Write the structure tokens for this entry.
Amino acid sequence: MQTIGIKDLQINPATLSRSLERGEYMMITKRNRPIGMAFAFDDTIVTNGLKTSLMIDAYKKGYLSLGQVAKALDIDKERAMRLLSLMGVDVIDYDFEDDMKFIESFL
């Protein structure tokens, strides 16, 4: 993977387009910190990557349930939970402190 600074990209944008035409990934940096990734367009990005991203975002916002995400992505719920977990999304939403208070009051 190549890296290009934002200033270099402004001076010579053909560097990016040549890289994309070769199917390479390019990391774009600003002051040596990554700010973005560039990659060549591919139909699988639209059919798989974009759809998955949209489903995960909808789940995080509470628009879709786990079952709906799994169905939309044509995977089982266990695989959907693993996918969400890998993407840093909490699959189970509960308050640990509330559970501890309940246990204490029960005892």
